[in-house]
Structures are given as C-alpha cells and as structure tokens.
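INFO worker-7 received task bundle
INFO bundle size: 2
INFO processing item 0
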Amino acid sequence: MAPMRLSIKPIRTCILCRKSESQSQLLRVNCIAGEVIPTQGRKSLGRGAWLHLECGYAAIERKAFKWAFKLEQAPDVSKFTTFLKERLTDMDAKDMKLK
C-alpha cells in the first residue's frame, strides 16, 4: 500500500495581531517604491507582509508596515487605505443582505 500524502497548507502570521492562519484567511501586501499595495495574487516581487483585513486600519495607526518592511520611515498607505474602504464596504453590504 502506498503511503498517504498529507496536504500541508502554508501558514502565515498577521503582522498586527500575530495570529497564524492559512494564506486564504490573510491579505498579502507589498511595499513597492515606498508605497503599500495589496497583492492580487499570492506571488509578487519584493518583500511581502500578511495581515487580516480587519487588522488593516490598526496596522496603519500603529505603523506596523514600517516594521514589517524594515523601512526607516513609514511608507505611503493611501492606496491601501482606499482598498480597505472598498473591501470593508463590500463586506458590510454582503452581511446586510444575509440578515
């Protein structure tokens, strides 16, 4: 009988709350030219950081991206803030339809 193969899913840690989750539960962001940009795919050039969507605003307030990307000054988060507003608005709309 052939040995069973276990399916191991990659685990990542949120840069803010430090909880470990599967990649599907977290959002990946990159810092490109001093700007935090959400990554559409799981692979992208440059250093990436993982976080829960709900941890996004707190990560901005606590300057967690500066630490995660090993930068000397805080990166520009304007595109990331816009992305968060859109995603969280979409999530709220879906929740209201379910109720």
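INFO item 0 finished
INFO processing item 1
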Amino acid sequence: MQLGICIAAILAVFEAVSASSQFHLSLVEKEDNGQVHYMVDWVTASTVNSSRLIVGTSADDLSSAVDGKRAGLVREAADEDVACWSALLSNLEPGSTIFYALESDATQQTTSSLDFDELSKSDSPTKSGIMNFTVPDGEITWAVFGDMGAPMQGQAAAVSLPALKEALSADGAYSGVLNIGDLSYELTGSNGQNYMNELEPITSKVPMMTTVGNHEYQYALSPSLAVQNYYRRFQGITLGAGAASGSASNEFYSFSSGLIHFVFINTEVYGDEAYAALQEDGTWKVDEAARKVAGTAQAKWLEYDLSHVKRSETPYVVMCGHRPPFKTPKALSEPGNRFAKEIVPLMSKYQVDLYLSGHEHTYLMFEASTFNGYNIPPIIVSGSSGNNEYIREEAELDIEGFEWKTLIPKYGYGYLTATKDAMEWQWGSAASDATNEPSSAMWKKEDEVSFPKQTISNVYTPGGSPVSEPVDVASEWASATSGSGAGTGSGSSTTGSTAQETTGSSASSSSSASPTSSAAPLSLNSVTYGVISLVVAMSL
C-alpha cells in the first residue's frame, strides 16, 4: 500500500510538470534597431512553484532557459486550479523562427529574461511539447474579432474558430490577432479552460492582443472572478505592452507594429452594467466610485499616449475597444456620456484613423463622421465571430447618431494590414448562413475597405499623464532578480493591486513589473529521484 501511495506521488509530479500549457504570445514593442520583444503566458498545475521556458533557434537546441513570473491561480474546474505564468523573450530578429517549450529538466542556465543576442550554446535539456513561431519581417496582417465564446458551449459559440485555425496553418493568412473583448462567455471555470486550450494553436504561434468586454465585468464577482482571471491569464500584456506604454494594465495599453500604432481601451468604464473593482481586503465588489477613477486615469493616459505617437514612423493610429461609441452605454448625445466627453475629443485632436470594436453581434462599417464639432474616425464592428446570443439583425440594432455604410448579419471576422499609402481592411463570413444554427465554413470575403493615410496637420504637444512611467521592458527584466515572482498579475492600474496565490482573493501591492520574490526552479529529475528514493526506502 505504501508503494502504491509513492507511485501515485510520482505520477502527480509528472502530471504537475506536463499540465496543459495554454501558450499565449503578446507583442511588447519594437526597438529602433528593428528587434522585437514578445511576452509568453502559460499555465501549469497549481502545485508547480516555479516554471521556466527553454528556448532556442532550433528544436534540437533549446539551449537557454527563462524564468516565469507567477500571476496567481485560476480555477478551471471544481477544486482544480492552474497557476498562470509570464516570461519575456527579448531582442528577436525579424524573420527568425523561435522554438520554445516548458522545461522538464531545470538544471540548465537560467536568466531573468531571454536575450537572443546572448543565446547560450550549452547542451539541450529534456523537452516536450515544443512550440515555435516566426517573428514577422514586414507589415503584420491582423485577424480582428470579438465576442467568440468557448467551443464547448456548442451551437454558434466559436463558430469562426475552425476558419481562423485553417487560415493560419494552411495559408499563413495573418500574423497577429486583435481580440476585442467578451472572450469566452465567461473567462471562468471550464469555459476559460476550453477557450484557452482551443486557441492555443493560434496564440502559441502569433501574438494575440486583448481587452475586456462587458461579459468579463458582469461576472467579475466571486465565485466567477472573470476579470481577475483575465488579469492573471494575460499578465504578459500588463508586464509587456502595459509597462512599456505607461498604463501598467492589460485593459488599456498601446503598442506599435509596423506602420500602425494600436491603442486598446477599456470601454466598461463607460458601460451600464455594475462595475466591479478589487478592494483593499482582496475581495471584488461593485464599486461605482472606482469606475469614475478608472475612467479618469484612462483618459489622462490616452492623451499622454496619443500625444507621443511619432506619426512619421507610425502614420496610422488604430483604437480598439469592446463597445462601439454608440453603446457607451447608449448614444453619445445622452446627458453625462463620458465617452463623448473624454474619448471623442482625443480621437479628433490626435486624428485617430480607425476605431475597431465588437459588442454588437454582427458586422458593421461606419464612415468617418462628426459629433459636436469633433471628428470621429471610421468605425468597424467585428463582433460576430461566434457566441450563443446569435446574430443581430438590422431591426435589433440601436445606433442612434450614426448611419452604417455596410451591414452584414453573418458570422465571421476581419483582416487589417497597412501599406505606406493606406490601411487595408477585409471582412469575411466563416459560417453557414443559418443565423441560429450555423456550421463552420471556410472564410469568404464579403467586404473590403481602404483607409487612405491622413495628412497630419498638427504638431502635437505632449499632454496627459501616464499611470506609471513607461519602462524599457527588456532592461527591466534583465535587471530583475531571476526566479518566480508573486508579482503584478492583476493588471489593474487604477488600484495598483497584485494577485495572490489563491483563486478567490487578491491583495493590494506594488504595481512594479519586477518580481517580488525568487524561488528555486523545479527540477523534474531531482524531484523524481527523491520520490523514487523514498519508494525504495519504504519498500525495504
């Protein structure tokens, strides 16, 4: 019987190390020398106390290791948690292919971040589940969608996902994803697990940039904790693009890619559902005062960010938010509409080229318009990649103050890319025409729009203020103590809070991107050797 217990312990060790990874890449920034930084997020079994990636430029030579920073736990099933981790891959050369995996032999060299200028040539450690991605060399084509849902929900949920997978694996049709909120309906429990598992063939190969939607906030309170789960699962954006852009957040942040400067905002500070926020005691509660604080901080940061964009280098500015302007929470003309007061003037002043959104479960395109003397850029609603609230027909839409140019009530998603003369947009259907019982289909182009480059007439004076001073993420990680950080998993720049290890609570702490503690790396060989030794001893 003792032998059986010990064998079970051995199996538990192997299970802990080989738990589903749910790899997710995100883009940090591009250096002046052309090199690029990526963040990698993943999960392990909750019992894993430290986790590392092994990385190299070939599958046969994963010769360097990089420590993960731990964000906290997420519950995926009854009494089953996973630990969330992030790590930086810095100084990646455009056109290079990077191979990576979770380390199963932690006896090799370790660094606090992986710098490919200093890639070690030591022997390759044991490895399994090797992933790879190629750093784009040139302009990125972005797949754009929101409101997908988790495939396990059936019916229309994630009906566009097969087309997205096929377009990437067979054609390499895109090299990045803009996922604009309402992720898995909801990002909690088995829905969150299924969503992250099913997207991994995409997110392990191309960066996916995200923000929250109303469904994340509708289920923010215990026991769902959807926003906390978002903070932890996407900690890499907080520590990467969030830190670099001065937001210290994964709800609103910015990054530049090729000719486009992307700005993500959290439109739930302008929503009508109850707004939940993390409290000092570590619990999530409805807190309308926090909504106002968050909106003010975001608006100040947004002006800071837009006023510092170098339009000579990134001539296009694209803003991404879950809600379209006419659903914030209602029309812009509604008294007290803060989106109209805080965001619209900034879009006009800094000549934003395009606004991408979801929320409405259909495809809509609006041409540039004006509101109270302010210019509003063209608006695209790409919120029909799947979900079980089904497609919105024209009669169900409330778009007061706007007139659509194109409405296609079908399931699908879009592609965005840029040239020196214009941004090019395509949208296509990815399911049968059946509104309530669709079946997946290959992507079929249904709309195409060109957005010419604007003549920028203003020389911007720096304004606004960051939430925290922007950091050089590569330098920050290089100087950090190696090891697993309890760290900054919350992504909540308005509270400065960080995630604890429990799934049900978080505690207030510093918003620094540096790890707050270090831990010895897990070695499968050493742990297994110890357990086997115990088996032998108990069997004698």
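INFO item 1 finished
INFO post-check item 1: Residues 288-307 form the longest helix (20 residues).
INFO post-check item 1: The CA atoms of residues 23 and 222 lie 26 Å apart.
INFO worker-7 idle
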